[in-house]
Amino acid sequence: MAILKIARMGHPVLLRRCDPVADPGAPEIRRLVADMMETMEDAPGVGLAAPQVYVPLRLFVFRVPDGRREADPEDTPLDNSVLINPEVELLTDDRVLRWEGCLSIPGLRAAVPRAPRIRYRGFDLEGRAVERIVSGFHAGVVQHEYDHLDGILYPMRMTDFRLFGFAEELARAASGERP
Ligand code: NI
To answer: How far does the centroid of ligand 1 lie from the alpha carbon of residue 101, in Å?
Structure first.
């Protein structure tokens, strides 16, 4: 396994529509996913899409730690997982603002409008179909990672740029250390 270099915003690999994975069970896909999980944990992050490690394929790894999920039975916790050739269906018309960061936009955070509830489908490393209906943090992470596969970074989804800043400053402001 290896820790991979992460592409930062401005690199064109983050702006393209990625190609489907021809064979989810291929050994090179298994190797890529193992490296991506190690890279995500090392960062640390809760999601990492293949284009973020310069591989323009439709797959991402993610996790939903117990401590990050919300009091909603559909915000299901998940250990390190992979979704290959995913599809995402937004199950509501309304959007909620969710605070997000991105390993390709280090140091910054923003409030991004996301659907509170989604259905997603895809395949795992054995080529088995995965389908889940999820809410809350889990739904937000999947929408963020899925967007990467279409060349969309979270600033492109933002509606209020006042809710965009350096994580350190935002944390300071939230703690009341600064008015
Ligand atoms: Ni990201």
So the answer is: 7
Per-residue HEC secondary structure of 44-60 comes to CCCEEEHHHHCCCECEE
**Residue 13 alpha carbon to ligand 1 centre in Å:** 13
Q: Is 42 helix (H, G, I), strand (E, B) or coil?
A: helix
CA 28 to ligand 1 centroid distance, Å: 23
| Residues whose beta carbons lie less than 5 angstroms from ion ligand 1 | 102
**So what's the pLDDT on residue 101?**
98
Contact of 97 with 104, CB cutoff 8 Å: no
50 pLDDT above the threshold of 60: yes
Q: Identify the DSSP state of 118.
A: E
* pTM score, whole prediction: 0.96
